Amino acid sequence: MSNVLEHYQYLHQIPELGFEEHKTSAYIAQQLEQAGYTVTRNVNNTTGIVAQYDSGKPGPVLALRADMDALGHIIDGKHCARHTCGHDGHSSILLTAAQELIKENNIKKGRLKLIFQPAEELGSGALAMIEGGVIDDVDMIIGLHLRPKDECPKDFASAAMYYSASTTVEASIHGIPAHGARPHLGINALDAATLAIQAVNTIHLAPSLTYSVKATRCICDAGVTNAIPSEAYVCWDLRTSTNPAMNELKAKTLNAIKLSVESIGGKVDINVTKEIPAAEIDNDVTKIIAEAIVDVLGKEGLKDPIFTPGGEDFFNYPCQRNVKAGFWGLGADLTPGLHHPEMKFDTSALENGVKITKACALKVLGK
Protein backbone atom coordinates (compact mmCIF):
# COMPACT_ATOMS: atom_id res chain seq x y z
CA MET A 1 0.00 0.00 0.00
CA SER A 2 1.15 3.54 -0.78
CA ASN A 3 1.06 6.65 1.39
CA VAL A 4 -1.91 8.10 -0.48
CA LEU A 5 -4.41 7.66 2.37
CA GLU A 6 -2.01 9.24 4.83
CA HIS A 7 -1.65 12.28 2.60
CA TYR A 8 -5.39 12.41 1.94
CA GLN A 9 -6.35 12.22 5.61
CA TYR A 10 -4.07 15.15 6.42
CA LEU A 11 -5.11 17.34 3.50
CA HIS A 12 -8.80 16.59 4.05
CA GLN A 13 -8.56 18.07 7.56
CA ILE A 14 -7.09 21.40 6.42
CA PRO A 15 -9.41 22.64 3.64
CA GLU A 16 -8.41 26.09 2.37
CA LEU A 17 -10.04 28.38 -0.18
CA GLY A 18 -8.48 29.50 -3.46
CA PHE A 19 -5.17 31.36 -3.13
CA GLU A 20 -5.29 30.68 0.62
CA GLU A 21 -3.89 27.13 0.49
CA HIS A 22 -0.94 27.97 2.75
CA LYS A 23 -0.93 24.86 4.95
CA THR A 24 -1.77 22.64 2.00
CA SER A 25 1.03 23.93 -0.22
CA ALA A 26 3.55 23.93 2.63
CA TYR A 27 2.85 20.26 3.35
CA ILE A 28 3.03 19.24 -0.31
CA ALA A 29 6.22 21.23 -0.95
CA GLN A 30 7.95 19.73 2.07
CA GLN A 31 7.02 16.20 1.04
CA LEU A 32 8.30 16.78 -2.50
CA GLU A 33 11.58 18.28 -1.31
CA GLN A 34 12.14 15.33 0.98
CA ALA A 35 11.50 13.00 -1.97
CA GLY A 36 14.27 14.68 -3.97
CA TYR A 37 12.43 17.10 -6.28
CA THR A 38 13.53 20.62 -7.06
CA VAL A 39 10.62 22.65 -5.73
CA THR A 40 9.52 26.20 -6.51
CA ARG A 41 7.05 27.62 -4.00
CA ASN A 42 4.77 30.64 -4.30
CA VAL A 43 4.66 30.60 -8.10
CA ASN A 44 3.66 34.03 -9.42
CA ASN A 45 3.18 35.21 -5.82
CA THR A 46 0.47 32.60 -5.20
CA THR A 47 0.30 29.41 -3.18
CA GLY A 48 1.09 27.40 -6.32
CA ILE A 49 3.90 24.86 -6.40
CA VAL A 50 6.03 23.44 -9.21
CA ALA A 51 8.35 20.49 -8.63
CA GLN A 52 10.78 19.09 -11.20
CA TYR A 53 12.83 15.98 -11.76
CA ASP A 54 15.36 15.96 -14.60
CA SER A 55 16.46 12.56 -15.84
CA GLY A 56 19.56 14.10 -17.37
CA LYS A 57 18.72 12.58 -20.74
CA PRO A 58 17.00 14.14 -23.76
CA GLY A 59 13.25 13.70 -23.94
CA PRO A 60 9.90 15.42 -23.58
CA VAL A 61 8.77 17.55 -20.67
CA LEU A 62 5.67 16.05 -19.07
CA ALA A 63 3.57 18.04 -16.60
CA LEU A 64 1.14 16.39 -14.21
CA ARG A 65 -1.32 18.77 -12.58
CA ALA A 66 -3.47 18.59 -9.45
CA ASP A 67 -5.64 21.30 -7.89
CA MET A 68 -5.44 22.08 -4.16
CA ASP A 69 -8.30 24.38 -3.14
CA ALA A 70 -11.47 23.62 -1.21
CA LEU A 71 -14.95 25.06 -1.70
CA GLY A 72 -16.68 27.69 0.38
CA HIS A 73 -19.98 26.62 1.93
CA ILE A 74 -22.52 28.08 4.34
CA ILE A 75 -23.31 25.28 6.80
CA ASP A 76 -25.50 25.83 9.86
CA GLY A 77 -25.33 29.55 9.12
CA LYS A 78 -21.53 29.66 9.18
CA HIS A 79 -19.11 30.22 6.31
CA CYS A 80 -16.56 27.44 6.06
CA ALA A 81 -14.15 25.74 3.68
CA ARG A 82 -14.77 22.10 2.88
CA HIS A 83 -13.27 19.64 0.39
CA THR A 84 -16.38 18.77 -1.59
CA CYS A 85 -14.84 18.54 -5.07
CA GLY A 86 -12.10 16.02 -4.36
CA HIS A 87 -9.11 18.31 -4.80
CA ASP A 88 -7.56 16.85 -1.66
CA GLY A 89 -7.81 13.48 -3.40
CA HIS A 90 -6.21 14.82 -6.58
CA SER A 91 -3.30 16.32 -4.66
CA SER A 92 -2.85 13.13 -2.64
CA ILE A 93 -2.75 11.02 -5.81
CA LEU A 94 -0.18 13.21 -7.54
CA LEU A 95 1.98 13.62 -4.43
CA THR A 96 2.07 9.88 -3.83
CA ALA A 97 2.76 9.07 -7.48
CA ALA A 98 5.56 11.64 -7.48
CA GLN A 99 7.19 10.11 -4.43
CA GLU A 100 7.02 6.61 -5.86
CA LEU A 101 8.27 7.61 -9.32
CA ILE A 102 11.45 9.13 -7.96
CA LYS A 103 11.96 6.36 -5.39
CA GLU A 104 11.65 3.63 -8.01
CA ASN A 105 14.00 5.51 -10.38
CA ASN A 106 11.96 4.60 -13.46
CA ILE A 107 12.08 7.98 -15.21
CA LYS A 108 14.64 7.36 -17.94
CA LYS A 109 14.37 10.42 -20.19
CA GLY A 110 13.14 14.00 -20.30
CA ARG A 111 11.80 15.96 -17.37
CA LEU A 112 8.82 15.52 -15.08
CA LYS A 113 7.06 18.62 -13.80
CA LEU A 114 4.47 18.48 -11.05
CA ILE A 115 2.02 21.37 -10.90
CA PHE A 116 0.03 21.79 -7.69
CA GLN A 117 -2.37 24.54 -8.65
CA PRO A 118 -4.36 26.87 -6.41
CA ALA A 119 -7.80 28.38 -6.98
CA GLU A 120 -9.37 26.08 -9.53
CA GLU A 121 -12.80 26.88 -8.10
CA LEU A 122 -12.18 30.59 -8.69
CA GLY A 123 -11.38 29.90 -12.33
CA SER A 124 -8.15 31.90 -12.11
CA GLY A 125 -5.64 29.46 -10.63
CA ALA A 126 -4.47 27.98 -13.93
CA LEU A 127 -4.12 31.44 -15.44
CA ALA A 128 -1.95 32.52 -12.53
CA MET A 129 0.31 29.50 -13.01
CA ILE A 130 0.51 30.12 -16.77
CA GLU A 131 1.49 33.73 -16.12
CA GLY A 132 4.18 32.35 -13.82
CA GLY A 133 5.67 30.49 -16.78
CA VAL A 134 5.14 26.97 -15.46
CA ILE A 135 4.25 25.42 -18.82
CA ASP A 136 6.42 27.50 -21.14
CA ASP A 137 8.73 24.51 -21.61
CA VAL A 138 6.08 21.77 -21.33
CA ASP A 139 5.28 19.43 -24.23
CA MET A 140 2.40 17.54 -22.62
CA ILE A 141 0.15 18.11 -19.60
CA ILE A 142 -2.25 15.67 -17.92
CA GLY A 143 -4.89 16.28 -15.25
CA LEU A 144 -7.58 14.21 -13.54
CA HIS A 145 -10.81 14.50 -11.54
CA LEU A 146 -12.81 12.16 -9.32
CA ARG A 147 -16.20 11.33 -10.82
CA PRO A 148 -19.70 10.79 -9.40
CA LYS A 149 -20.80 7.18 -8.94
CA ASP A 150 -23.59 7.32 -11.54
CA GLU A 151 -21.14 8.60 -14.12
CA CYS A 152 -18.10 6.43 -13.42
CA PRO A 153 -18.10 3.89 -10.55
CA LYS A 154 -15.09 2.74 -8.61
CA ASP A 155 -12.64 0.50 -10.51
CA PHE A 156 -13.50 2.29 -13.73
CA ALA A 157 -11.90 5.32 -15.35
CA SER A 158 -12.44 7.42 -18.47
CA ALA A 159 -9.46 8.51 -20.55
CA ALA A 160 -11.15 11.71 -21.76
CA MET A 161 -13.27 14.26 -19.90
CA TYR A 162 -14.94 16.79 -22.19
CA TYR A 163 -15.81 19.75 -19.98
CA SER A 164 -17.91 22.67 -21.17
CA ALA A 165 -17.03 26.34 -21.42
CA SER A 166 -18.23 28.33 -18.43
CA THR A 167 -18.58 32.10 -18.17
CA THR A 168 -19.86 34.38 -15.41
CA VAL A 169 -21.36 37.76 -16.34
CA GLU A 170 -22.16 40.38 -13.71
CA ALA A 171 -24.15 43.57 -14.26
CA SER A 172 -24.47 46.62 -12.01
CA ILE A 173 -27.61 48.44 -13.08
CA HIS A 174 -28.11 52.14 -12.33
CA GLY A 175 -31.47 53.89 -12.32
CA ILE A 176 -32.82 57.02 -10.63
CA PRO A 177 -34.39 56.89 -7.14
CA ALA A 178 -37.88 58.24 -6.55
CA HIS A 179 -40.80 58.06 -4.14
CA GLY A 180 -43.12 55.12 -4.71
CA ALA A 181 -45.98 57.59 -5.20
CA ARG A 182 -44.06 59.34 -8.03
CA PRO A 183 -42.50 56.56 -10.10
CA HIS A 184 -42.47 58.78 -13.20
CA LEU A 185 -39.68 60.83 -11.62
CA GLY A 186 -37.34 57.86 -11.34
CA ILE A 187 -35.94 54.94 -13.29
CA ASN A 188 -36.63 51.67 -11.52
CA ALA A 189 -33.47 49.53 -11.39
CA LEU A 190 -35.60 46.53 -10.45
CA ASP A 191 -37.63 46.93 -13.62
CA ALA A 192 -34.39 47.19 -15.61
CA ALA A 193 -33.01 44.06 -13.96
CA THR A 194 -36.22 42.18 -14.76
CA LEU A 195 -36.07 43.29 -18.39
CA ALA A 196 -32.44 42.19 -18.62
CA ILE A 197 -33.20 38.76 -17.17
CA GLN A 198 -36.10 38.26 -19.58
CA ALA A 199 -34.09 39.52 -22.54
CA VAL A 200 -31.31 37.05 -21.85
CA ASN A 201 -33.88 34.28 -21.52
CA THR A 202 -34.95 34.90 -25.14
CA ILE A 203 -31.47 34.14 -26.53
CA HIS A 204 -31.25 31.16 -28.87
CA LEU A 205 -28.31 29.43 -30.49
CA ALA A 206 -28.52 26.70 -33.11
CA PRO A 207 -30.58 23.74 -31.82
CA SER A 208 -27.68 21.40 -32.58
CA LEU A 209 -25.57 23.13 -29.90
CA THR A 210 -25.57 22.32 -26.20
CA TYR A 211 -25.83 25.51 -24.15
CA SER A 212 -27.58 27.31 -21.32
CA VAL A 213 -27.70 30.81 -19.90
CA LYS A 214 -29.55 31.73 -16.74
CA ALA A 215 -29.63 34.42 -14.04
CA THR A 216 -28.23 33.05 -10.78
CA ARG A 217 -28.29 36.10 -8.53
CA CYS A 218 -30.36 39.29 -8.31
CA ILE A 219 -29.94 41.85 -5.54
CA CYS A 220 -32.08 45.00 -5.43
CA ASP A 221 -33.39 46.87 -2.41
CA ALA A 222 -34.24 50.53 -1.88
CA GLY A 223 -34.25 49.96 1.87
CA VAL A 224 -37.96 50.68 2.20
CA THR A 225 -41.07 49.40 0.46
CA ASN A 226 -42.33 52.75 -0.83
CA ALA A 227 -39.28 53.91 -2.80
CA ILE A 228 -38.06 53.23 -6.32
CA PRO A 229 -34.72 51.37 -6.16
CA SER A 230 -31.90 52.99 -8.09
CA GLU A 231 -29.34 50.15 -8.00
CA ALA A 232 -29.54 46.47 -8.89
CA TYR A 233 -27.03 43.67 -9.32
CA VAL A 234 -27.60 40.62 -11.52
CA CYS A 235 -25.34 37.66 -12.24
CA TRP A 236 -25.63 35.16 -15.10
CA ASP A 237 -24.06 31.73 -15.58
CA LEU A 238 -23.31 30.73 -19.20
CA ARG A 239 -22.45 27.21 -20.41
CA THR A 240 -21.65 25.82 -23.85
CA SER A 241 -20.05 22.63 -25.10
CA THR A 242 -17.63 24.43 -27.43
CA ASN A 243 -15.54 27.59 -27.30
CA PRO A 244 -16.97 29.12 -30.53
CA ALA A 245 -20.49 28.67 -29.16
CA MET A 246 -19.46 30.45 -25.96
CA ASN A 247 -18.17 33.40 -27.97
CA GLU A 248 -21.57 33.70 -29.65
CA LEU A 249 -23.57 33.21 -26.46
CA LYS A 250 -21.47 35.73 -24.53
CA ALA A 251 -21.81 38.40 -27.24
CA LYS A 252 -25.60 37.95 -27.38
CA THR A 253 -25.87 38.04 -23.59
CA LEU A 254 -23.90 41.27 -23.23
CA ASN A 255 -25.94 42.89 -25.99
CA ALA A 256 -29.27 41.78 -24.49
CA ILE A 257 -28.37 43.16 -21.06
CA LYS A 258 -27.19 46.51 -22.41
CA LEU A 259 -30.09 47.15 -24.75
CA SER A 260 -32.81 46.06 -22.32
CA VAL A 261 -31.54 48.27 -19.50
CA GLU A 262 -31.08 51.25 -21.80
CA SER A 263 -34.59 50.78 -23.22
CA ILE A 264 -36.07 52.37 -20.07
CA GLY A 265 -33.31 54.93 -19.58
CA GLY A 266 -31.11 52.97 -17.21
CA LYS A 267 -27.35 52.54 -17.34
CA VAL A 268 -25.36 49.38 -16.79
CA ASP A 269 -21.79 48.35 -16.08
CA ILE A 270 -21.16 44.81 -17.33
CA ASN A 271 -18.21 42.68 -16.30
CA VAL A 272 -17.20 39.21 -17.44
CA THR A 273 -15.71 37.99 -14.17
CA LYS A 274 -14.83 34.37 -14.93
CA GLU A 275 -14.14 32.58 -18.21
CA ILE A 276 -13.26 28.89 -18.36
CA PRO A 277 -12.73 27.39 -21.81
CA ALA A 278 -14.23 24.16 -23.05
CA ALA A 279 -12.04 21.06 -23.16
CA GLU A 280 -9.22 20.99 -25.69
CA ILE A 281 -7.96 17.39 -25.59
CA ASP A 282 -5.22 15.83 -27.70
CA ASN A 283 -6.00 12.40 -29.14
CA ASP A 284 -2.45 11.12 -28.68
CA VAL A 285 -2.48 12.02 -25.00
CA THR A 286 -5.88 10.40 -24.58
CA LYS A 287 -4.46 7.22 -26.11
CA ILE A 288 -1.62 7.22 -23.56
CA ILE A 289 -4.09 7.65 -20.70
CA ALA A 290 -6.34 4.90 -22.06
CA GLU A 291 -3.41 2.50 -22.24
CA ALA A 292 -2.46 3.37 -18.65
CA ILE A 293 -6.03 2.74 -17.45
CA VAL A 294 -6.12 -0.63 -19.19
CA ASP A 295 -2.77 -1.56 -17.65
CA VAL A 296 -4.18 -0.89 -14.18
CA LEU A 297 -7.89 -1.73 -14.41
CA GLY A 298 -8.04 -3.99 -17.47
CA LYS A 299 -10.02 -3.40 -20.65
CA GLU A 300 -13.27 -3.75 -18.73
CA GLY A 301 -12.24 -0.82 -16.51
CA LEU A 302 -11.96 1.67 -19.37
CA LYS A 303 -15.09 3.80 -19.69
CA ASP A 304 -16.15 5.77 -22.76
CA PRO A 305 -15.29 9.49 -22.92
CA ILE A 306 -17.41 11.58 -20.55
CA PHE A 307 -19.14 14.81 -21.59
CA THR A 308 -20.10 17.15 -18.77
CA PRO A 309 -21.65 20.64 -18.51
CA GLY A 310 -19.24 21.38 -15.68
CA GLY A 311 -16.25 23.68 -16.12
CA GLU A 312 -12.58 22.99 -15.38
CA ASP A 313 -9.91 25.69 -15.48
CA PHE A 314 -7.28 23.08 -16.45
CA PHE A 315 -8.16 23.77 -20.07
CA ASN A 316 -6.62 27.20 -19.87
CA TYR A 317 -3.28 25.39 -20.21
CA PRO A 318 -3.84 24.09 -23.78
CA CYS A 319 -5.92 27.12 -24.78
CA GLN A 320 -3.33 29.66 -23.61
CA ARG A 321 -0.22 27.75 -24.69
CA ASN A 322 0.68 25.31 -27.47
CA VAL A 323 0.78 22.23 -25.26
CA LYS A 324 -0.79 18.81 -25.77
CA ALA A 325 -3.32 18.09 -23.03
CA GLY A 326 -5.20 15.14 -21.65
CA PHE A 327 -7.72 14.95 -18.83
CA TRP A 328 -9.16 11.78 -17.34
CA GLY A 329 -11.86 10.83 -14.86
CA LEU A 330 -11.37 8.43 -11.95
CA GLY A 331 -14.27 6.35 -10.66
CA ALA A 332 -14.54 6.56 -6.87
CA ASP A 333 -18.23 5.85 -6.06
CA LEU A 334 -18.61 9.56 -5.28
CA THR A 335 -22.01 10.54 -3.80
CA PRO A 336 -24.34 12.42 -3.67
CA GLY A 337 -22.49 14.72 -6.05
CA LEU A 338 -19.63 17.13 -6.54
CA HIS A 339 -19.94 20.40 -4.59
CA HIS A 340 -22.55 18.87 -2.29
CA PRO A 341 -21.69 19.80 1.33
CA GLU A 342 -21.87 16.12 2.30
CA MET A 343 -19.89 14.78 -0.67
CA LYS A 344 -18.04 11.56 0.02
CA PHE A 345 -16.27 8.85 -1.97
CA ASP A 346 -14.55 5.51 -1.57
CA THR A 347 -11.02 6.55 -0.63
CA SER A 348 -9.64 3.15 -1.65
CA ALA A 349 -10.05 4.38 -5.25
CA LEU A 350 -7.14 6.74 -4.67
CA GLU A 351 -4.79 3.76 -5.06
CA ASN A 352 -6.10 3.33 -8.62
CA GLY A 353 -5.40 6.99 -9.21
CA VAL A 354 -1.80 6.64 -8.09
CA LYS A 355 -1.20 3.61 -10.30
CA ILE A 356 -2.76 5.19 -13.39
CA THR A 357 -0.86 8.44 -12.86
CA LYS A 358 2.43 6.56 -12.59
CA ALA A 359 1.61 4.49 -15.67
CA CYS A 360 0.93 7.67 -17.69
CA ALA A 361 4.25 9.19 -16.61
CA LEU A 362 6.23 6.07 -17.45
CA LYS A 363 4.65 5.72 -20.88
CA VAL A 364 6.02 9.18 -21.70
CA LEU A 365 9.28 9.28 -19.73
CA GLY A 366 10.07 5.70 -18.82
CA LYS A 367 11.43 4.23 -22.03
From TrEMBL:
Coiled coil: none annotated. Mn(2+) binds at residues 85, 87, 121, 145, 339. InterPro entries: Amidohydrolase (IPR017439), Bact_exopeptidase_dim_dom (IPR036264), Peptidase_M20 (IPR002933), Peptidase_M20/M20A_hydrolases (IPR052030), Peptidase_M20_dimer (IPR011650). One of its GO terms (cellular component) is cytoplasm. It comes from the Bacteria. GO terms for biological process: folic acid catabolic process. Residues 168-254 form the Peptidase M20 dimerisation domain. The keyword Transcription does not apply. Keywords: Hydrolase, Manganese, Metal-binding. Its cofactor is Mn(2+). SUPFAM superfamilies: Bacterial exopeptidase dimerisation domain, Zn-dependent exopeptidases. PANTHER family: PEPTIDASE M20, PEPTIDASE M20 DIMERISATION DOMAIN-CONTAINING PROTEIN. This is Amidohydrolase. The lineage of its organism: Bacteria, Pseudomonadati, Pseudomonadota, Gammaproteobacteria, Orbales.
